[in-house]
Amino acid sequence: MTPAKAADQHRSALLVMVLTLGLLIAAVAVTGGMIASSMRTRPVTLASPLHIYPVTQVTPGQCPVGTQGITGQSGMGPTCYRLAQGIAIHKVADMRVQKSGARPGGYDVAVTLRPIDREAFASLTRATVGRDLAFVVRNRLVTLPRVDMAITDGKVVVTGPPNKTAANKLVSQLKGK
């Protein structure tokens, strides 16, 4: 075999290897993209907007007419929660019941906000660390979680439901159902 013919065969073999490697890389990229997209959850459209307000003051009894607040129940009976300007959320990336990481045998409600709502929620929680937020749906107080730290990643965990049934009920109420 002449050196020129050997060089041609070597180039042909190299070209076949490069093309095969390129196809393999493309197949892995497409498969990985399909797997990643199948793992994403679809946004959850809430039946009614979830309004989230900082609580500025808590007083016993019904809220007086004209007060920017909402009346809810506490261990002492009707309670007026005075509210500051908040945000309205119409869709979330995910909302589900999960086992509690803090309470053995307990359950929490995990809410993942969409990117469009994350910054507004982060600003709200930065301003309310150590205070309560009122989660209101259809002008009804659903839950009143305390903000332990600013939530900047859009992953909200509402702790406190005593069991899985109560956690599922809370999810249903937050969805506006």
Runs in which pLDDT lies below 50 for 5 or more consecutive residues are none
CATH topology of the largest domain: Gyrase A, domain 2
**Architecture (CATH level 2) name of the largest domain:** 2-Layer Sandwich
Please indicate the count of domains. Answer: 2
- Let me know the number of strands: 9
Tell the overall outline.
elongated
Query: Gyration radius, to the nearest Å?
Result: 27 Å
Along the chain, the helix and strand elements come as: HEEEEEEHEEEH
> Count of helical segments?
3
Helix- and strand-based class? alpha+beta
Q: Overall pLDDT, averaged? A: 86
Strand content: 25-35%
* Major pleated sheet: 6 strands, antiparallel
Terminus-to-terminus distance: 80 Å
Q: In percent, how helical is the residue content?
A: 25-40%
User: Can you tell me the CATH class of the largest domain?
Assistant: Alpha Beta
